[in-house]
From TrEMBL:
Transmembrane segments: none
CDD domains hit by this protein: SRPBCC_CalC_Aha1-like
Protein name: SRPBCC domain-containing protein
InterPro entries: ASHA1/2-like_C, START-like_dom_sf
Pfam families on file: AHSA1
Family under the similarity heading: Belongs to the AHA1 family.
Highest taxon above the source species: Bacteria
Domain Activator of Hsp90 ATPase homologue 1/2-like C-terminal, residue spans: 13-141
Amino acid sequence: MKRDLSFRWYFPHSPAAVWACLTEQEAIAEWLMKNDFKPVVGHKFNFHTKPIPKMDFDGIVYGEVLEVRPQQRLVYSWKGGPGPGVITLDTVLTWTLVAKEGGTELRLEHSGFKGFKNYLSSLFMGAGWNGRIRKRLESLLNEKAHVTT
C-alpha cells in the first residue's frame, strides 16, 4: 500500500514572498514548526512539534534538503519515528512555485507513504496540509504583505 499527497493552492503574493515563507527559519516556525532549516542542498535539519506516541512519532521530523531552485522548487526528505535513529516514515516533500497573474500557484507533493500505518499518517497529514497548515501559511503571507505596504 502506497499513497502520495498532492495539493495546489493559489496565493495573491509574489513567488519571492511565498519562497521566503518556505525557506526562512522564523517564517517556517510561524506557519509550520520550530526548525533549524536552511535552503542549502545537503543541509540536515529538524522540525520540532508535539509528540504523538499513538502514531509512533516522537515530535521530530528529520529532513535533508535535496534540491533548491530559488523561487521555483524546494525538495527535502521528511522522516520520522518513535525515537532517535528509528525511522518508520520516510517520505519526500516537494514545493513547486509557479508565477501566475497577480500571484503564485504553490504545489505541494508529499510522496512515499508506504504501508498501512503510514497510509493512516498520510490521511492525518493530508488533512493538516490542506487545512490548518495552508491557512496558517496564507495568514502569514497576508500579514507580511500588510506590513510591507
